[in-house]
Amino acid sequence: MASVTTLHAVVLGLVQGLGEFLPISSSAHLVVLPRLLGWPDQGLSMDVAMHMGTLLALVVYFWKDLADLALGALKGEPKQRKMLLLILAATVPGGIAGLLLDDYVESVFRDPALIAG
């Protein structure tokens, strides 16, 4: 991972935060923007940290809904239990793919030409 300045991190955080909720690839912008600004590639670890920041913001914003979902599932309410199981089931394949394909993703999918295509 290249050395990331505070400005670099703030700009990437803004791009991630704004891009995540638009119909664009915030991940692609985290690769393309540093190249356009002449910054070194911050690496996949920084990108993951940006995505974790987005996740944290969503958990904080939706904490009541998430708590209601978890409590309902623990109480055995069928709709909440099914929803929680579906969320977990949808998360597992992405986590496994991330662990197995880490090196491949870092080398191939950080190419701006591929992202543009």
List keywords for this structure.
117 residues; 78% helix; elongated; mainly alpha
Describe the structure.
7% of the residues are buried. This protein has helices at 6-19, 26-37, 44-61, 63-74, 78-100, 102-108, 112-116. The two termini are 25 Å apart. It is mostly helical.
Strand count, sense and barrel status of the largest sheet are:
none
Through-space gap between termini: 25 Å
Query: How many β strands by DSSP?
Result: 0
The mean pLDDT is: 87
As an assembly, this protein is: single chain
Helix and strand element order:
HHHHHHH
Globally, the shape reads: elongated
User: What helical percentage do the residues reach?
Assistant: over 70%
Stretches with pLDDT under 50, minimum 5 residues: none
Please report which band the strand proportion falls in: under 5%, 5-15%, 15-25%, 25-35%, 35-45% or over 45%: under 5%
Structural class of the secondary structure composition? Answer: mainly alpha
| Count of helix runs | 7
**Estimated radius of gyration:** 17 Å
How is this structure best summarized?
It is built from 7 helices and no strands.
Question: How does the SSE layout of this entry go?
Answer:
Layout (H helix, E strand, L loop, with lengths): L5 H14 L6 H12 L6 H18 L1 H12 L3 H23 L1 H7 L3 H5 L1
